[in-house]
Amino acid sequence: MVTGTQRTVALVQHACGDNPDDNLARTESGIREAGSRGADLVLLQELHRTPYPCQQEDPAVFDWAEPVPGPTTDRLAALARELETVIVGSVFERRAAGLYHNTAVVLDADGSLAGRYRKMHIPDDPGYYEKFYFTPGDTGFEPVDTAAGRLGVLVCWDQWFPEAARLMALAGADMLLYPTAIGWAAEDDADERARQHDAWVTVQRAHAVTNGLPVLVCNRCGHEPDPAGRGTGTTFWGSSFVAGPQGEILARAGTDAGEIATVTVDTGRTDTVRRMWPFLRDRRIDAYGDLLRRFRDE
């Protein structure tokens, strides 16, 4: 439990089937197991209540969306309150008719909705047609204050952008958290799979290093077929992990099966690490104006 700067954190990784209630029950079981291990903070994977919705563009899939607060946040809030544990979940949010977001929700240890983050970077790639479903977020890069610390919550595709991690760090986040859904296509050979997986781990460990912060990543696992039957579907590669503020791997789940990864992190190490590697001190903020341009081609 919370003592000083020590936080016991847990990642609940699992496969998702077609039945939303079964998926949520699987999530709840993982949260309870994490709670029995003394978790102060539980991170869930991206869109954990349903199959990954974006392998095709289908208007009927919008029926999976729900408001925030709503059924999923109500279930998570009750668990957070019962277990006295902060839970970071993920919801296909229906904000209004025709307006939907990919939203991370933060339930504090007393069951209150401490905050939400709407995914800012929205991909559009074969098998990941998120632009059809999700409006880019408008919550900004603002950490959420909880009983487990100040959480810099981002979502999946956000994990490839150093700007997002940096802005959360500059706003005083104690750690960075990424609910995720990423995997391989059947046509990817072993070498390509290794390159993709290594890049994914490397970029997030780099966020830990360059910001001096712990990073928590929770990814779904298992094969999900293409519901349209046109492709071979996606095999989500799991591999949920926790990295320390120097990028060191503190805990990691496997690639193929559901797992609850639990470890204690010390957010107090951030100050020690930043004294040795003072990247924030040495940033040339007077010279970075061109970062606000799409490309330096003029």
Short description:
With 298 residues, the chain is of the alpha/beta class. It has helices spanning 20-36, 71-83, 162-170, 190-211, 269-276, 279-282; strands at 6-13, 41-44, 86-96, 99-107, 113-118, 144-146, 149-153, 175-180, 183-185, 215-219, 221-224, 234-237, 241-243, 249-252, 259-266.
Number of domains: 1
Helix count, DSSP H or I runs of 4 or more residues: 6
Order of H and E elements: EHEHEEEEEHEEHEEEEEEHH
- Structural category is alpha/beta
Low-confidence stretches: none
CATH fold name? Nitrilase/N-carbamoyl-D-aminoacid amidohydrolase
End-to-end span in angstroms? Answer: 54 Å
Using only C-alpha atoms, the radius of gyration works out to 18 Å
Residue share in helix: 10-25%
Count the strands?
Answer: 15
For the report, how would you describe the main beta sheet? 6 strands, mixed
- Output the CATH class name: Alpha Beta
The coarse silhouette is: globular
CATH homologous superfamily? Carbon-nitrogen hydrolase
Note the beta-strand portion.
Answer: 25-35%
Strands ordered across the widest β-sheet: 5-4-3-2-1-15
| Mean pLDDT value | 96
Account of the 3D structure:
The protein is of the alpha/beta class and 298 residues long. It has one domain: 4-Layer Sandwich (Nitrilase/N-carbamoyl-D-aminoacid amidohydrolase), CATH 3.60.110.10. Helix content is 24%, strand content 28%. It has six helices and 15 strands. It has helices at residues 20-36, 71-83, 162-170, 190-211, 269-276, 279-282; strands at residues 6-13, 41-44, 86-96, 99-107, 113-118, 144-146, 149-153, 175-180, 183-185, 215-219, 221-224, 234-237, 241-243, 249-252, 259-266. The strands form three sheets. Strands 5-4-3-2-1-15 form a six-stranded mixed beta sheet. Strands 6-7-8-10-13-14 form a six-stranded mixed beta sheet, covered by helices on one side. α3 (162-170) packs parallel to α4. The longest helix has 22 residues, at 190-211. It starts with 5 loop residues before the first strand and ends in a 16-residue tail after the last helix. The mean pLDDT is 96.
